[in-house]
Write the structure tokens for this entry.
Amino acid sequence: MRVDVLVAEIGSTTTVVNAFKDINTENPIFWGQGQASTSVLNGDVRVGLQGAIDDLCQKMNVDSIEYDEMLATSSAAGGLKMTVHGLVYDMTAKAAKEAALGAGGIIHHITAGRLRRTDLQKIKEIKPNLILIAGGVDYGERETSLHNAEMIKSMGLKIPIVYAGNCENQEEIKLIFDEESDTKLYVVENVYPKIDDLNVEPCREVIQDAFEEHIVHAPGMEHVRDMVNGPIVPTPGAVMECTKLLYQCIGNLIVFDVGGATTDLHSVTEDSDQVSRILISPEPKAKRTVEGDLGVYVNMENIVKVIGKEKLQEELSDIDIDKVIENYKPIPVTNDEIKFVERLAKEAVLKAAERHAGQIRYIYGPSGRSTLAEGKDLTLVKYIVGTGGALTRLPNRIGILKEIARHNETGLLLFPGEHAEILIDNDYIMASLGVLSKKYKNAAIKLLEKSLQFKFPVKKAGVQGEKLKYEIELERLELERIEKEKFNADHIKET
């Protein structure tokens, strides 16, 4: 059997392959999915990849599969481990963090200001795959990022470094990490070029390029290019790519990915006019947060503590909670297990939304009470999308996502309203479509429509359409103003 593209998702424990046919036609097909245990830690990624392909053959009842291309996403061996170093936490360090998370990085350490010996020791212990240095607006403070670059250079790490700070430092940074160094340096535009201006997209792209270039040298991944002949993207970064693609099709949205170890939330949305006027610091249009304590399997006990065991038993009165916990498995089978996991998933979704969304704050001063907004504004979100194992397979997945709008009793959270529509990635292929979209954008859009079971508008009528109408109206008003001024001037001359 021949397919056009296989997309492999190489995870820490499982490798999944998704097969796609007729990729260059008006009707691309998601043909099937296979999976096997990941073999990166055993020293050769090809074993797990071949095992997943064999499983796909068995499920689809074919002897073998040939493919023109294989693309991949990877979160194996801890994913894209990063450390981030900026100047001021609420400014350059935060901007660098947003760039790293949006690219699919897993941030293990963030520093603000000059690096100390304790920071260097922590970096050694983390053994990151990549280090991001930022600091200083363009033509502003220079010394901190230069000091941090010198300190990192002194460690002799043979990992890529991305510099995304003050543009005046670029030449000196290149001299610090000279050609004789074993370190690969990527220099990119400043993530925080001026006050209240985030510029994270160029940095995100470079981080993903650096990941793809260097992941092939990671232990167990050395032979990945023997099978994968297309892009390799961090799995969370691929979900973000798919989220941004979906935004182009339907407008403001958020995507929840509830997993066994973490809950990721991706949002691509504009700020409302009301909130943008009182926002105390800028937020990226595309934002990702990772809640490392909210997983429904590895971190099950954390969520139970958050809910409270007594409250959980009271809510699920027809279930023996202790018995379910004692025999807990990664994939629920019995009705009791399913109800238990649905309650955990609901808590993970609500807590992740709380931490991702901004909030309204009141401050009091000599002139009275002032209203401020802090964090990401989700009030214009029109679609809430569920992906990941829990939110694509649990029977009450739509009900879980509907709870988000009801979870804002005080009105202080910048949450989506009840008008937001729920969509589910039924084929569980958003990560695969994220990497597929890099080369086959139209096919990825059509496959998204099928998986979400939702027909996209022929032309996007969302935010960009509204902006166009707004700009046309502004232009009309400006022409009216000019005509009135001209009329008044002529009238004055005549009189």
Q: What stands out?
A: Residues 2-77 form a domain with the Nucleotidyltransferase; domain 5 fold (CATH 3.30.420.40).
